[in-house]
Amino acid sequence: MKWTKEARYRTYESMTLAEQKKLELSVSASPWRQHYHIQPMYGLLNDPNGFVWYNGRYYLFYQWFPFGAVHGMKHWFQTESADLVNWENKGVAIKPDYSFESHGIYSGSGIVHNNLLYLFYTANKRDEEWNRLASQCLVIMDKTGRMTKQATPIIKSQPEGYTEHFRDPKVWREKDNFYMVVGGQREDLTGCVLLYQSHDLKQWSWQGEVKTKERNFGFMWECPDYFELQNHGILLFSPQGIHSKGDSFQNIYQSGAFVGKPLNIANGHFDHCDFQEIDAGFDFYAPQTTVSPDGRRLLVGWMGLPDIEYPTDSEGWAHCLTLPRELSIEGNVLYQKPIRELKEKRKNEVSAKLELSDSVENLGTLSGNSFEMICEVEIGSAQRAGLKLRVGEGEETLLYLDHGVKKVVLDRTKTGTPFAQEYGTIRQKHYQKNKVRFQIFIDISSIEVFVNDGEIVFTSRLFPKIESQGIQFFAEKGSAKIEAIQWKYE
Amino acid sequence: MKWTKEARYRTYESMTLAEQKKLELSVSASPWRQHYHIQPMYGLLNDPNGFVWYNGRYYLFYQWFPFGAVHGMKHWFQTESADLVNWENKGVAIKPDYSFESHGIYSGSGIVHNNLLYLFYTANKRDEEWNRLASQCLVIMDKTGRMTKQATPIIKSQPEGYTEHFRDPKVWREKDNFYMVVGGQREDLTGCVLLYQSHDLKQWSWQGEVKTKERNFGFMWECPDYFELQNHGILLFSPQGIHSKGDSFQNIYQSGAFVGKPLNIANGHFDHCDFQEIDAGFDFYAPQTTVSPDGRRLLVGWMGLPDIEYPTDSEGWAHCLTLPRELSIEGNVLYQKPIRELKEKRKNEVSAKLELSDSVENLGTLSGNSFEMICEVEIGSAQRAGLKLRVGEGEETLLYLDHGVKKVVLDRTKTGTPFAQEYGTIRQKHYQKNKVRFQIFIDISSIEVFVNDGEIVFTSRLFPKIESQGIQFFAEKGSAKIEAIQWKYE
Question: Chain B partners of A21 at a C-beta cutoff of 8 Å?
């Protein structure tokens, strides 16, 4: 299929039933459809948007191009859940209607005010010379689900001194004021975050930049999200153009946070520590947070990256969202734990306790392609010890401790159908103590590993054969102790 | 909406999701959607097709134009049922693929042979001057539901001496041979039935006409169906161009049967009684029969007629099928009884027993817009006695005995939204004995009345308000006894 401009810039409503059926058939033949992650019916999913608790349910929208696994006319697709575990597809929530949004409804956020859900998004337009025009817009949803879109943008364009890379509004409330951060780019092509203020969510005034200590940190900061947690101010964003450095910044684009003192909202000054990458895996971008009714700060990310080809692209669909995670701060480090609601999926428990000495153990009781597993690896004299997951003919995904360098390693070199190999096939992070706890979520084509209760997280897509379901434990050149509990998902 | 040729001759696959949504919204707002009859999701339903027991289920297809309530590009829509009561929509089964069927997949029938379902249909094509070209075609379905369409027609055109009005193949087996009747029109513009024979269901040879005693009986015979029942030969068909006569042939087009001796298949000679109309109601056409696994001859008809405007047309949908009926012969009369499977719907029984004397009784316990009712009316000295159904503000549908002329009368003069009034608003038939039994099926916008165990049947659409649910019993100028049992459907 040739993705001409005409083919990419169509609204979902113009899809014919023949096109729909073809996509459905193609997707239904995919061996890589997830069992318990949010994924598109067909087409391409990217950033999570408008994640919010409203009217007794969680709303979680995502960027969606319906016609195939490319980036084109973006819509907001709506999902809902009462429990953060079981999500219901609700169809397209926001689609291009007006001229100012003729080339896509881009990312944004939601906030509840006066019993209404205010959804802020970036309207993307291209003029005849294909110049981009970006504005920030508002649609208001009521409890019946009716959407009332503002007929003009609430912020018509970027401020002077900034380029048209002006997107991804995130709104929060502080006392009687509302604030918005928007991802931006200065005219010198460095990334930054722009700050707006409003009394009513409709009239917005520019406050200047969020003044961070990083004046030259990539060319664009996407998807900013500011919130406070345990008396810290946290600015989450997805910078583009950061060079890799040691084990960090290995992916094409990054996402992470400045953790600091609460933002000085009067002058935009933000006093913070160095940028910390939020995920150590291969496929993570554009996270967004919200607050649960009981006050937890929850995060969902896109389990994918722009400008990378994925094995499902040829099947007419791409990507999924991560599991929701609960954030916390320890020291100045942002921790992510899987939400406690996921425990409701724990049935069919099996466990194992092993002492390994330069050996590989294959326990028949532990296997699968859709499960949660908690595994503690205590490395003794071994040089390497850990797990092989999704083991099958010529396939394995390794998660282990490398004693010599004291690193946790996720190795997808032999994981299955290869992709994005130009960005390497190993991700690793330092660990401290010789006993490391892994909480692992495997789905048909993904892995999420929470190391030491969320100090490090590895989030990655994997594309092994569906029958590659083996789990092995190993210790090389010495001994190690491993304990594991597994809950297979039905 | 303007129904240009271009708008009428599109395949379902070319429907956009926006068009689909608009139709769905329009149909969902209709007050006349049926509760327990087969009806289209949207668009126009007409003839039942391919009614057959296969692979442990009943298959029942129907003619479908998806885009609105007009006749245009016809598809076969597929429904399935294990019990003849609960039907499942299965989507489009046959759509135009080849040039010879470029203007519609017209009516036909099914027969099971060697564990395969052979479906015969008429391919309709228009050339550039809009001349019609009709051929008979075959698609074979296997037990997995896969359809294999023959790439060329099995009968390329009508025989010499006949016009292009050549359609609606019905196939049956007799010993080692297969036979097909096709509706036809002689070049002198009189209707007839053409007979074909085959050994393998693929190669067909013309045998001449079915030689009936009616040489000049309307201009076209549609939907022929030949079968044998209780040692009689029965040729069911839908003649067009029959003038009304007494109480008969009141509708725009007719359907009925010649009941006779078994067809002499060697020479096509068919010795039969006069044509008998199969239904005395307002809305019935194009019936088709099949045989159940236990040997019953079952019939389903289209509860509608061509060339008539219906109140739902403006809602983007039209028509439904009748309930399935079991046929039998008493004397030389074709009886139709509701299939016994419908008794499974009998819950919530209420009954009444009344002696009326020039009065109207309104029993609160009996009411509804979706029910079955058995009612015996014994007319005494009354001039008229019977029922008023779907009674509401200014609305009523009458079913009564007219003692003076000894006729059963169905009167929809005040039934609700009027339509087809140019064909009259009363239908009536003679009865013999003064005690008459009615078995009545009311759905949201229809009535089917089986009189005296199926000797007479009245099938009609009704378009009253949904809240017109009253039932009244009446006797005028004298006395009558009425007993009724009602089962309201949930």
Answer: 13
Q: Can you tell me the distance from the alpha carbon of A73 to that of A205, in angstroms, rounded to the nearest whole number? A: 29
Q: Please report residues of A whose CB lies closer than 8 A to that of B14.
A: 16-18
CA pseudo-torsion sign A69, A71, A73, A76: positive
Nearest residue on chain B to A12, judged by CA atoms? B17
Are residues B247 and B125 part of one domain? yes
Are A286 and A369 part of one and the same domain? no
Out of A285, A307, A340, pick the residue that ends a domain: A340
- Is residue B352 within 8 A of residue B473, CB to CB? The reply is yes
Q: What is the pLDDT of residues A340-395, one digit of tens each?
A: 999 999 988 999 999 999 999 998 889 999 999 999 999 999 999 999 999 999 99
For B155, the token pair is 């009968």
Check whether residue A12 and residue A134 sit in a common domain: yes
Q: Considering CB atoms only, which of A13, A14, A17 is closest to B13?
A: A17
Residue A393's domain comprises 346-488
Please report the pLDDT score of residue A490 as a whole number: 76
Distance (Å, whole) CA B488 – CA B17: 37
Give the span between the Cα atoms of B155 and A458, in whole angstroms.
66
Residue B65 to residue B10: CA distance in whole angstroms: 9
Count how many domains chain A has: 2
In total, the C-beta contacts within 8 angstroms joining chain A to chain B are 27
Cα(A436)–Cα(B158) distance, integer angstroms: 82
Query: Which H or E element spans position B481?
Result: strand B470-488
Q: Do B17 and A18 touch (CB under 8 A)?
A: no
Of these residues, A47, A225, A279, A402, which one is catalytic?
A47
Q: State how far the Cα of A236 lies from the Cα of B420, in Å rounded to an integer.
A: 68
C-alpha A475, offset from chain centre: 33
Cross-chain residue pair A21–B13, CB shorter than 8 Å: yes
Residues B467 and B333 in one domain: no
Contact of A12 with chain B, judged by CB distance below 8 Å, is answered with yes
Is the Cβ–Cβ distance between A473 and A387 less than 8 Å? yes
A20 contact B CB<8A:
yes
Q: How buried is residue B114: exposed, middle or buried, by Cβ count under 10 Å (0-12/13-18/19+)?
A: exposed
Q: What is the DSSP letter of B162?
A: B
Q: Does B17 touch chain A (CB under 8 A)?
A: yes
Average pLDDT, chain A: 97
For residue B101, give how far its alpha carbon lies from the nearest alpha carbon of chain A (Å).
18
Asked if residues B139 and B161 have their Cβ atoms less than 8 Å apart, the reply is: no
Are A211 and A119 members of one domain? Answer: yes
Instruction: Please check whether residues A238 and A147 belong to one and the same domain.
Output: yes
What are the tens digits of pLDDT across the range B155-180?
999 999 999 999 999 999 999 999 99
- Active-site positions of B? 47
Domain-terminating residue out of A340, A356, A380: A340
- Which residue in the set B12, B13, B16 is minimally distant from A14, CB to CB? B16
Q: Which amino acid is at A183?
A: G
Output phi, psi for A421, to 5 deg: -65, -20
Please indicate if any CB of chain B lies within 8 Å of the CB of A41. Answer: no
Is B16 within 8 Å of chain A by CB? yes
Task: Specify whether the CB–CB gap between A362 and A379 falls below 8 A.
Answer: no
Same domain (yes/no): A114, A193: yes
A12 and B17 within 8 Å at the Cβ level: the answer is yes
**B170, containing H or E segment:** strand B167-174
How many CB atoms are closer than 10 A to CB A251?
23
The tokens describing A409, both together, are 């390693």
A47 assigned to active site: yes
Please determine, for the modelled complex, whether the ipTM score is greater than 0.85: no
Is residue B20 less than 8 Å (CB to CB) from chain A?
yes
pLDDT tier at B236, thresholds 50, 70, 90: very high
Minimum CA–CA partner of B17 in chain A:
A13
Q: Does B489 touch chain A (CB under 8 A)?
A: no
